[in-house]
């Protein structure tokens, strides 16, 4: 159930969005060690964002997972997602924050119940 919610002030067209969703899904699944079928990625473009006092391309992400996160994994996720954003949207890695949440199973609902 890893879920990555990405926000950026860059406009994202459908083709680029599809590429980012595919690449981020594969990366999150591989790095965390969960099946791709469990991974959800949300991509929000054209969100008003100021970073460091400017509106240059920037992004913010939040990744929630039930287990699988630790400092080493988080570092790999941060650099990999930053690389995807740099390659696809030209967002410099110095203009990207990501927050990690390691959640308890009972705090997530799925299929009419909790995990």
Automatic annotation (TrEMBL):
GO terms for cellular component: extracellular space. GO terms for molecular function: cytokine activity; dopachrome isomerase activity; phenylpyruvate tautomerase activity. It comes from the Eukaryota. InterPro entries: Macrophage_inhib_fac, Tautomerase/MIF_sf. Gene3D superfamilies: Macrophage Migration Inhibitory Factor (3.30.429.10). Pfam families: MIF. It catalyses: L-dopachrome = 5,6-dihydroxyindole-2-carboxylate; 3-phenylpyruvate = enol-phenylpyruvate. Belongs to the MIF family. The keyword Isomerase applies. This is L-dopachrome isomerase. Keywords: Cytokine, Isomerase, Secreted. It comes from Cicer arietinum. It is found in: Secreted. Its EC number is 5.3.2.1, 5.3.3.12.
């Amino acid at each position: 159930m890893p879920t990555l919610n990405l926000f950026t002030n860059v406009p994202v067209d459908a083709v680029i969005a599809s590429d980012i969703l595919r690449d981020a899904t594969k990366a999150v699944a591989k790095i965390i060690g969960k099946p791709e079928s469990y991974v959800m990625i949300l991509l929000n473009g054209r969100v008003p964002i100021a970073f460091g006092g400017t509106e240059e391309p920037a992004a913010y992400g939040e990744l929630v997972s039930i287990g699988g996160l630790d400092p080493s994994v988080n570092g790999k996720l941060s650099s990999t997602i930053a690389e995807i954003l740099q390659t696809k949207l030209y967002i410099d890695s110095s203009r990207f924050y990501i927050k990690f949440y390691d959640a308890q199973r009972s705090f997530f609902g799925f299929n009419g119940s909790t995990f």
